[in-house]
Amino acid sequence: MTQLPRLLTPHTVLFQEHGGESAYGDIYEPERALQWVKVDEKTQLVRSATGEEAVSSAQVYCRPKHAPLPVKSLVTLPSGRTSKVIRVDHLDHRPAPEHYVLYLE
């Protein structure tokens, strides 16, 4: 399996996996670091996991070893901003490296 090259993935983000919902709101797993990712803080229009149009303010490119990466999880970017994941794409198109793209609010 081909991986995203380290040269192109210089960032580390903090990730809190969405663990479900309770009567008091969303439940999150303990924070974990995702190393060797690429962060693009650019605005683009995407479809959310529910099919609605949403504005993504940042995208995070991750390696397969970082999975699972569910929608509604929280990601803290190197800039210190924390955002919710609105969509996750799994890209596995040989010969390109397999990876995930997280689209953040």
SSE arrangement:
Layout: E1 11-16, E2 18-22, E3 25-28, E4 32-40, E5 44-47, E6 53-56, E7 58-62, E8 74-76, E9 82-91, E10 99-104
Antiparallel strand pairs: 1-4, 1-8, 2-3, 4-7, 5-6, 7-10, 8-9, 9-10
Task: Explain the overall architecture.
With 105 residues, this protein is mainly β. 0% of the residues lie in helices and 53% in strands. The strands form 3 sheets. The protein has a 6-stranded antiparallel β-barrel with strand order 1-4-7-10-9-8. Strands 2-3 form a two-stranded antiparallel ribbon. Strands 5-6 form a two-stranded antiparallel ribbon. The chain is globular. It starts with 10 loop residues before the first strand and ends with a strand. It comes from Populibacterium corticicola. This is Head-tail adaptor protein.
**First CA to last CA: what distance?**
30 Å
Taking the sheet with the most strands, its summary is: 6 strands, antiparallel, barrel
Please give the radius of gyration in angstroms.
Answer: 14 Å
Structural class: mainly beta
Give the helix proportion (percent range).
Answer: under 10%
How many helices? The count is 0
Task: Please trace the helix and strand order, writing H or E for each element.
Answer: EEEEEEEEEE
Number of strands: 10
Shape: globular
Low-confidence stretches: none
Strand order of the largest sheet: 1-4-7-10-9-8
In terms of DSSP E residues, the strand content is: over 45%
Average pLDDT for all residues: 91
Organism: Populibacterium corticicola
Protein name: Head-tail adaptor protein
